[in-house]
Structure formats: structure tokens, C-alpha cells
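By way of example, we now present a protein record of this kind:
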Amino acid sequence: MTLPLPVGASPIGPQEFQDMVNRVERYIGQVEKNMQRLFDNCNRAAVVLPAFLADDLRPRLERLRDLTRRLFFELTKVVANPGWPPGVLSAAEDWTTRVGGPVSGLATRLTPDQMKLDNKWEGAAAEAYAETLPTQKAAIEGIKQLTDVLDTNLTKIGWGIVAMWAGLAVGLAAFVAELIVEVGAAATVVGAPPAAAGAGVSTAKVIGLVGTLVVAFLTYVGLTVDALSGMRQKLAGHEPYPGGSWPRSTTTDLEDGSLRDGDGTDWRMKY
């Protein structure tokens, strides 16, 4: 199963996501309420049903009870750690607007024509300085590439959380509707055994849905971790960050910033 991520969606607001979480929690409450009503109806039916039908009902109720415990156990794990996509999506946007974008603007200026290096100065030192521009430009462009990776993957994680909760809301809403039907069927007494069996099938289906959504999200996160590992490896590499550090010139021509000391590295004004 893949998570249905929105394309080009605007960041989800705190209240919007909280409303989604609250809706899921209301559905969980409705599941608990209707499940209790179903058990009550089935237990009352077991008292008046013929022995062979009552004997058929009891193991179905026992299985339903086990499935219900498992369902609430799985739901509790999700509800206890809901995540906060508004914060994740905001951080993703900040990496681009506050870091990547401004840094990219610097990269466009690190060219000889933009810096106007050869307009007024000449000499070995001036040439050595100009030769540092490509490596500096590559390093700055590398930062933009890294912030793009952070933005993309944080955005995926944020919307992955939203998709998981949306899937839970849809699945639990359908489950509540099915339980209401089973509660009504169990109230007829003769419908109690098939109602218990039907509720068991519905509960098992929802348990599978919860598990699938969680696994899909964790798999999705695993893919983003791979991308972030690649980013870390790039930072530690030699291109464009030699030895994992910011590039710097190793030529001795830049060590002397004098204008006139006669050692051949002087900066000279063009005339």
C-alpha cells in the first residue's frame, strides 16, 4: 500500500490537523460504545437462544473480544504518537525560503562578471582570487542541493503523517457504520450469532488497515532516511567540500595582500 500524498497542497494548519486527530478519536469512542452494545445484545441473546445456537455464539464472541483488544492496542500506539505535520512542513519550507533561496542568490553573484574582479585589479594575487570563484560557487550550490533534499523529504514525511491519519479516519468511519448494523442485528436475538461473526470480520479488517497504514508510513520514512544518508555522505565527501570542509585556496599567492612590496604577488590597479 502506498500513502496517497497530495500534490502541490498547501501546508496543513495546526487546527486542521488537530481536527483530523479529534475526528479519529471520536470514531474510536464510537467503536468502543457500539462494540459494548454489541456484546450486551449478544449476551442477552445467548440466554434465550436454543442451546445449539448459544454454543455457536460463545466462541464467536470470544474471538471478537480478542480482536477488539488487539484493535485498541494498535490504535493506542498511533494515537499516543500522532506526529505534528504542521511543524514538519513548516521546517521543510524554512529550509528553502530561509537557507536554500538566499544561498542560491549568492551563487549567481559568484562569477567574474558579477564580481568585476578584472575591472580594476590585476596581478598574481588577483588571478588567484578569481580562480577561487568556481570552487566557492560549487560549494554554495551544493548547499542549495542539500536544502532541496531536506525540503523534499520533510515535506513527504509531513504529508505521510497526514495521509496516515486520513486513512484511519476513513477506515474507522466505515467500521462504525458496519458495527451499527451488527448491533441492530444482534438485538433481534436470532441475528446475534451472524452479527458476532460479521463484527469479527469487520474488526479484523480494520486491524489490517491500521497495520498496513503504519507499515506504509514506516516504509516511506525509510526511503527518506536513505535520501538523507546520501546528503550526509555528500557533506563528508571531497566534492564540492574537500575533506568534508568548506573549500579554501591553497595557493601562496593570496597570502600577501600588499599593493607594492615587489614580491610578484602584488595587487595592481589597472590604468
